[in-house]
Amino acid sequence: MEHLLDNNLPAIACHNIRTEYQSTLHRPILNGIDLQINHGEFVALLGMNGAGKSTLLRSLVGLVPIKKGDIEICGTSVDRKHIGAVRKNIGFLFQGGGLVDQLSCLDNVLCGCLGELTTWQSLWGFPQRDRRVAMQLLQNLGLQEQIYQKARQLSGGQRQRVAIARTLIQSPHILLADEPTTGLDVSGINQVMDSLAEMHQQGLTVIVVLHDLALAAKYAQRAIILDQGKVWYDGGCQNIERQFARLQSLSQFQSVNAA
Amino acid sequence: MKFIDRIRSHISKITSNQYNIWAVRGCIFISVVWAYIWSLNGLKVNLELIKTSLPYMTDFLSRLLPPDLSILDVAIKALIETVQMSLWGTTIGAILSIPIALISARNLSPFWLRWLASLFQNAVRSVPSIILGLFFVAATGLGAPAGTLALGIYTIGYLAKFYQEAIESVDKRSLEALQVSRASWWQIAQYGVMPQVLPLCLGYTIYMFEYNIRAASVLGVVGAGGIGFELVNYIRGFEYNKATTMMLVLLVVVTSIDALSSQLRNKFKSD
């Protein structure tokens, strides 16, 4: 397990990854992705709808099977055999939070440490030590009043912060966030993005799928723009608006030609 | 899948035109009206028939009153048996419904298994409860055991479908989040699936229990025990006043169980 923390190895390395062919798209969703992300980076993953952003993120934790190529997380390849070791180091924020609505915020956060507990240990609830950690995390994220509230009663921003607490309790090295700001109001967006920035400052590698270019430019150091399952741009965030405009005009041109 | 996609693209092409949309709506309206007229003709209902049948109805209803309360003890005893039949019938049906729901759920089972399971579900649902009652009366003889078994099988037809829908409504992302947290199969079931499915399923089961009390009263007609057995005997013996007592007792119980169960269901919903 030690080599997972080896900082000389890239946090994420994808070599020519391809997913299964999609007849509706006439191509695989991921169609030959090559990229490398180092420890401590804050990367914004951008692209039009259907470009493969979420699929790429999901494939990094083994939620989408890869047909060709390989993915390495801190030098460990993402396959059936090593998936447990890989997931141990990754926290994943789902769009909308991915919480269990019927559980309390506290229980939702505690679900993050299920991997550390055996089925038998978690059968009658969670250990006191973990409960204290979870409460502290919720307090740090400004949710002390919502600790015992059901997740369904929360606002979008609160949900996403509970989800952040759930990933933090695993103390991951890499955080993947799939459109964490979708559906949130301005204050919710700022709260979530500020939390991500704070985690990044504490040394986490953060990869976040975004639609908002201004947010990407504000928080991320590096932008990766995907188009039709391939990396279309990979570089600094200074001129992503220009890059995006170019991509849009190109795709319009292509669709006119196809018609 | 491909075929459906192809049809869908044709349909969207047709409905993309404003005039076509109104033409399609007009066609739907005309066919609905036609279906109603066609059904009415098939039923051979006319004003004359309603007029001549009215005196018979009022005569029947007037003979029901007043209720004969002397058989109240018989009615309550029969009713208790009905509730007991419903309780066990619903429980047997609920237990048998769980595996069938699991193999019918879109998010759990492969296509072929789902197809078989839904075929089975439809087969069970299309057998009327009376037929099930007759079948079990033939097997176990007259009385409550036959009714209980009939209710058990009848319940599968509905609860399996309800459970299936509850399982299908589980939020996929919440389970994936647990998967990424390296939760075991059992942990995902305990902390992800159960909290989402259980309140819905309990609500459905309570509703089914209430429904089965009414269904059990019908089963009595074919001798499968419960309040219906006594009810039909009184009607066949022209003792309408006693039958009224039976129906009144049933009404009281069904109403109170309905009130109780809707409160319980609301509680499960808000949990």
Summarize the structure.
In chain A, 36% of the residues lie in helices and 23% in strands.
Radius of gyration of chain B: 25 Å
What is the first-to-last residue Cα distance of chain A?
Answer: 53 Å
CATH class of the largest domain in chain A: Alpha Beta
What is the general shape of chain B?
A: globular
- What is the CATH architecture annotation of the largest domain in chain B? Orthogonal Bundle
The CATH superfamily title of the largest domain in chain A: P-loop containing nucleotide triphosphate hydrolases
Order of helices and strands of chain A: EEEEEHEEHEHHHHEHEHEEH
Largest sheet entry of chain B: none
Strand content of chain B: under 5%
What is the rounded Rg of chain A? 19 Å
CATH architecture of the largest domain in chain A: 3-Layer(aba) Sandwich
Class based on secondary structure composition and strand pairing of chain B: mainly alpha
Extract low-pLDDT stretches of chain B: none
At the fold tier of CATH, the topology name of the largest domain in chain B is: MetI-like fold
- What proportion strand of chain A? 15-25%
How far apart the termini of chain B lie comes to 38 Å
Q: Domain count of chain B, please report it.
A: 2
Your description of this structure?
The complex is a heterodimer of chains A (259) and B (271). Chain A is of the alpha/beta class. Chain A folds into 2 domains: 1-89 and 174-185 and 206-259, Rossmann fold; 99-171, no CATH class. Helices cover 36% and strands 23% of the residues of chain A. Chain A has a 6-stranded mixed beta sheet with strand order 8-9-10-5-11-12, sandwiched between helices. Chain A has a 4-stranded antiparallel beta sheet with strand order 4-1-6-7. In chain A, strands 2-3 form a two-stranded antiparallel sheet. The mean pLDDT of chain A is 87. Chain B has 271 residues and is mainly alpha-helical. Chain B folds into 2 domains: 2-45; 66-270, MetI-like fold (Orthogonal Bundle), CATH 1.10.3720.10. Helices cover 84% and strands 0% of the residues of chain B. Chain B contains 11 helices and no strands. Chain B has helices spanning 2-15, 18-43, 47-64, 72-104, 111-125, 129-140, 144-168, 172-180, 185-219, 227-236, 240-270. The relative contact order of chain B is 0.12. The model of chain B has no long low-confidence stretch (mean pLDDT 84). The interface between A and B is medium-sized, with 33 and 23 residues.
